[in-house]
Amino acid sequence: MLRNNSVIGWLLAAPLSLVLVVFLVLPIVMIVVVSFWGATEWSIYPAFQFDNYEFLLTSDVTYRVFLNTFKYALITWVFTLLIGFTVAYYLAFHIRSLTWQIALFLLCTIPFLTSNIIRMISWIPFLGRNGIANSTLISMGVIDEPLEWLLFSDFSVILAFVHLYTLFMVVPIFNTMMRIDKSLIEAAADAGASGWQTLRHVIIPLTKPGIMIGTIFVVALVMGDFITVRFMSGSQSANVGRMIQNDIGLLQYPSASATAVILLFTVLLLIGTLLRFVDIRKEL
Amino acid sequence: MEPRPRSFYALTAFFIGFVIFLYGPTVTIGILSFQGPEGGLTFPMRGVSLHWFRDLFEQQAVGDIWGSFSRSLTLGLMVMITTVVVSVMGGLAFRKRFAGSSVVFYLIITSLVIPSILISLGVGLIWSQSGLPVHWSSSGFGAQLTWTLPFGLLIMFAVFNRFDQSYEEAARDLGASPWQVVRHVVLPIIAPSLIGVALFGFTLSYDEFARTLLTAGSYNTLPLEIFGMTTNVTTPVLFALGTLTTVFSLLVIGVFLAVAWIMNRSRARRGSDAGQGLI
């Protein structure tokens, strides 16, 4: 019976495995192989050389760009966590009817299902030199000159990240909070805990798995991004994804692949570490 | 009911602020897309008109947006159907704890967290090195599946974690074959969640950019077309297009939610015959 089960399991998992092998495993293998190849100005040729890695690892630019990528990830993580936790906490513990909880939760989820690019574009009228933010601040007399750093700066990049990805914190944290047994909170209150103490000693520890899953999403999305940084910084800032995309634009596929390998290694190491703190399958 | 604590009002204000933060920019470009013909990319509005929407329907003004829209639509439906079928099969497979299931599980997680540009680059390289032409319906299709399938499977895991196995046991005790159990018991029970999987499959594909970038070939999907426009179009026609696709996405979401709601209701009605006087 067990053997039979395993065969059926395999058959059911076959289409999934096929997609993952052809479009995930093979591309990674291909990137690793090509990262050792050589390139001329217009073509690439098979080789086995470490030039691409040597160039990357001895270049100052690489370290600066990686540092910048970590900076984006860290700042975005802090903001998405604070906002996401507060929103999830509000929905889970302050909204009393399930219908309202579902309705407000959907309200938060819907933007995730619309186009990221449009959502980035829609910041232009707000942040531009003559945009809503500047004209409001000027008419209120807070500033005399329009602020130049609102659009096409690190500020706008992080604002867009927070705008796009806070949802990935809200959903898993809300999911974990909804499973907290409400009698634990009553018990804390009966034992004389204040609201803050309940939050600090009961809710936050029990919400950790959700926070971990949200962190995994946000870190992975920000580390691997290239389009938000390109669009919101007006090509003035760089992260690793932009570096890869630049090389691709110049047809330097081997060099792009080497950077991609290092990026993948970094991301998997980070996520692997985070996964040690949470059992995803149990939390779903 | 207990009176609301003071923190409730502070948090309500915070939540309203968050919703404005989420929707404000989109609503703004919705308004600005009705700019008069003289208007620019920001306020003030110089008259109200449908000028920029009309522009969209004139072929020469912008690129091939209607072609790219129909490609995105077709691709979205292809990805949606594949995602639902493969996720359900995968979800059922993982209940059997087959050998190697943990490898497949970690591949799913990798597929989710891998920087999208790696999929784009890797798939693009495989196709170009084997001399195949990249096309949205082959390489683009597969590349998008690496993004939609993990979401589909995570939903399926969540569904099966909550699945009451006694229904299946009851069916088996009544002599149902394994296929009959799946067909007449499991699938009807998980059907509303499949609406969710389908919604994710379609919308994630319809809006996908990074994984399609190097895998779509010379015929752009809509997000690629829109991104191309951002570099050379500086009129509100961009906002008009953004408004139209967002409205389309919202309609799709609305339809899926309505279907899920109707399914749940009709099930609630048919599910129990208590009080119907049947013996």
Task: Provide structural commentary.
- The complex is a heterodimer of chains A (284) and B (279).
- Chain A has 284 residues and is an all-alpha fold.
- Chain A has one domain (57-283): MetI-like fold (Orthogonal Bundle).
- Chain A has 15 helices and two strands.
- Chain A has a two-stranded antiparallel ribbon with strand order 1-2.
- In chain A, helix 3 (60-94) packs antiparallel against helix 11 (195-223) and helix 11 (195-223) packs antiparallel against helix 14.
- Chain A is globular and about 70 Å long.
- The two termini of chain A are 28 Å apart.
- The model of chain A has no long low-confidence stretch (mean pLDDT 88).
- Chain B is mostly helical and 279 residues long.
- Chain B has a domain at 64-232: MetI-like fold.
- Helix content of chain B is 72%, strand content 0%.
- Chain B has helices at residues 6-32, 51-56, 65-94, 101-113, 116-129, 136-161, 166-173, 178-207, 222-232, 237-271.
- The longest helix of chain B is centred in the C-terminal third of the chain and has 35 residues, at 237-271.
- Chain B is globular.
- The chains are: A mainly alpha (284), B mainly alpha (279).
- Chains A and B meet through helix 1, helix 3, helix 4, helix 5 and helix 6 of A and helix 1, helix 3, helix 4, helix 5 and helix 6 of B.
Question: Which key features would you list for this structure?
Answer:
heterodimer, A: 284 residues, mainly alpha, MetI-like fold, two-stranded antiparallel ribbon, 15 helices, 2 strands, 1% strand, B: 279 residues, 72% helix, 0% strand, globular
Helix and strand arrangement:
The complex is a heterodimer of chains A (284) and B (279).
Chain A: H1 2-34, E1 38-39, E2 44-45, H2 51-57, H3 60-94, H4 98-109, H5 116-121, H6 124-127, H7 132-139, H8 154-165, H9 167-178, H10 182-190, H11 195-223, H12 227-232, H13 240-249, H14 253-275, H15 280-283
Antiparallel strand pairs in A: 1-2
Helix pairs in contact in A: 1-14, 3-8, 3-9, 3-11, 9-11, 10-11, 11-14, 13-14
Chain B: H1 6-32, H2 51-56, H3 65-94, H4 101-113, H5 116-129, H6 136-161, H7 166-173, H8 178-207, H9 222-232, H10 237-271
